[in-house]
Design a protein that fits this description.
This is 2-oxo-4-hydroxy-4-carboxy-5-ureidoimidazoline decarboxylase. By secondary structure, the chain is an alpha+beta fold. It folds into three domains: 176 residues, Oxo-4-hydroxy-4-carboxy-5-ureidoimidazoline decarboxylase (UraD-like); 237 residues, Aminopeptidase (3-Layer(aba) Sandwich), CATH 3.40.630; 114 residues, Alpha-Beta Plaits (2-Layer Sandwich), CATH 3.30.70.360. It has 22 helices and 16 strands. The longest helix is centred in the first third of the chain and has 24 residues.
């Protein structure tokens, strides 16, 4: 922290010209960025400086942004071969092994450079030191190059700028002498845990499988190493670690936190698991310092949230709130294995008596907080590492089928058709327009099928899904009413019939104002701008909302914020900030 603080002090005290000189090389051949950011001083932290520099670029004209992109060299390109790169670029390409390409790799990179320039008109930009900060492999670089070559130009320009900010962040870390050690530990835990998978090629970890049990055992082992006083697995497979406070462990209140460790199929490494690792690292740091809090800290790795193997989504957090349904034990997976049998095969009791005993007494807890990857593009598009969640959206889901008349595509006049697919198409457009008219409202038709469809037959049937979400139940219900009314009107006008089956209804879970304020104070203490946003995805926090006051912190996801996908990622620097925010939030509770 000493060298980091000294360099920040120098930056804040420097003249504008000296400020620009101190940041020379941070952004490739673009001193104008530092020149404009100088007016925002003093910076409270390196994170505040990074955010200010990124804001300058985000608010710049498109021509200026393109100039910044074009100031960068090609990867393993002519400038690299001729030794004409800046010292910073030379170092980065060397660390990524781009100066040691095989002839085949070099030829492939040259072809990719040519194809990319022909398509976009600027050089391909990639932070080759990667999300961990220690370097991507040449194979990873080439694979990313090939993937992004297919992107839309607008999206690719934005991604190039984000990669430039990541390059700048790593260069600033070097200038500050800073290393995100906690963030790298979190990143390494995520990579290690991803080795336990049902699929050899992709991360898949569904409830009560051998991979799922192996993850639970590894989490328990790490919790013990971190210094938790109690570590165990409950009747539904939740991994529970408790770090005692300064009071009597049998009576002192606890702060409950955590997230889920199961995954979707072909998942990313950070969804859910990030929210287990962050408090684990906070406990590890407390334990190493020999410190206790004036309350206990209970970290739960929820065993199931995704609803991948069994229909009973949120069965893990439902056990804690007392909402676990006995009928769930009889549900079968795709192979016909009842839930109770899967539980027993995984070493769990599979009995309601044991599950009921997992219910928490709310009088013992201060509240519930959850850290989670955003799973969306907002923070990434704003160049912000952390965001404060205002509410978890309420939702309604349906499956439906419109029935018309299958008839010949060539002989049936347009005015006499009963086209089921056209009816759904009209509904999709209405959903898009209706949701877009209200802030933070979304509507999606994610599944669309014409059974036995043929190229020359007007669709007689069309199956579809509906997913409607909003930040409050009132707004959600208004959307729901309007969409269903429009569906009925479409079918009457087109001479179609419809069936609509509700499949899920979840109420909105607004953040508790006091806990949201604590997250805001923790983010502000890092020197970061505050950005508040709703969560469009469901989380364990929305179930704990029924029992305890709750609030969430979002962490930026890379690659445009994609999640439930192998491209899901966070940087070690953002993970470090999440841990520091969690620690700051704990400190505010100590002082309360």
């Amino acid at each position: 922290m000493g060298s980091e603080s000294n360099f920040l002090t120098r930056l804040n005290a420097a003249s504008p010209a000296e400020f620009v000189a101190l940041l020379d090389g941070t952004y490739e051949h673009s001193p104008w960025i530092a020149e404009r950011a100088a007016a925002a001083r003093p910076f409270a932290s390196p994170a505040a400086l990074k955010a200010a520099l990124a804001r300058v670029v985000r608010e710049a004209a498109v021509d200026e942004q393109l100039g910044l992109i074009r100031a960068h060299p090609e990867l393993a390109g002519k400038a690299a071969v001729a030794g004409e790169l800046t010292a910073e670029s030379t170092n980065e390409q060397h660390k990524a092994g781009l100066t040691a390409c095989t002839p085949e790799e070099f030829a492939r990179l040259q072809q990719l450079n040519a194809d990319y320039n022909a398509r976009f008109g600027w050089p391909f930009i990639l932070a080759v030191r990667g999300p961990r900060g220690t370097g991507l492999t040449r194979a990873e670089i080439i694979a990313t190059f090939e993937r992004r070559l297919r992107a839309h130009p607008d999206l690719e320009r934005a991604e190039c700028l984000r990669q430039i900010h990541r390059i700048a962040e790593i260069r600033l870390n070097d200038k500050f002498g800073a290393e995100p050690a906690l963030g790298r530990q979190l990143w390494d835990w995520a990579a290690e845990l991803a080795r336990h998978s049902e699929d050899p090629d992709w991360l898949t970890c569904t409830y009560a499988t051998p991979a799922h049990t192996a993850v639970a055992e590894q989490l328990m082992a790490w919790m013990r190493e971190c210094g938790f006083d109690e570590v165990g697995r409950d009747a539904v497979g939740n991994v529970v670690g408790v770090y005692h406070g300064t009071g009597d462990p049998s009576t002192e209140k606890r702060l409950l936190t955590g997230s889920h460790y199961d995954t979707v199929r072909r998942a990313g490494r950070f969804d859910g698991r990030l929210g287990i690792f962050v408090p684990m690292l906070a406990v590890r740091e407390l334990h190493r310092a020999g410190r206790r809090l004036p309350f206990g800290l209970e970290v739960v790795g929820f065993s199931e949230e995704e609803g991948q193997r069994y229909p009973a989504t949120f069965l893990a957090s439902s056990a804690l709130t007392g909402a676990f349904e006995p009928a769930w034990l009889d549900q079968a997976d795709a192979e016909g294995i009842p839930l109770r049998d899967a539980m027993r095969a995984a070493g769990l009791p599979g009995r309601m008596g044991a599950i009921t005993a997992s219910k928490r007494d709310p009088s013992r807890y201060l509240g519930f907080v959850e850290v989670h990857i955003e799973q969306g593009p907002m923070l990434d598009s704003l160049d912000l590492p952390l965001g404060i969640v205002t509410s978890i959206n309420g939702s309604r889901r349906y499956t439906g089928e419109i029935t018309g008349l299958a008839s010949h595509a060539g002989t049936t006049p347009m005015g006499q058709r009963r086209d089921a697919a056209a009816g759904v198409a009209e509904l999709i457009l209405f959903c898009e327009q209706r949701a877009a008219a209200v802030p933070d409202v979304v509507a999606t038709v994610g599944m669309l099928e014409v059974p036995s469809g043929s190229i020359n037959v007007i669709p007689g049937r069309c199956r579809f899904s509906l997913d409607l979400r909003a930040t409050t139940d009132t707004v959600r219900d208004a959307l729901d009413s309007d969409v269903r009314a429009k569906l009925d009107e479409i079918c009457r006008r087109r001479g179609l019939s419809v069936t609509l089956q509700p499949t899920m209804a979840a109420n909105a879970a607004p953040s508790d104002p006091a806990w949201q304020s604590r997250w805001e104070a923790a983010v502000a203490a890092l020197g970061l701008p505050l950005h508040r946003l709703p969560s469009g995805a469901g989380h364990d926090a929305m179930k704990l909302h029924d029992l305890l006051p709750q609030a969430m912190l979002f962490v930026r996801g890379g690659n445009g914020g994609i999640s439930h996908n192998p491209l899901e990622t966070v940087t070690a620097d953002d993970a470090e900030l999440a841990v520091r925010a969690f620690e700051s939030m704990l400190s505010s509770l100590r002082a309360a």
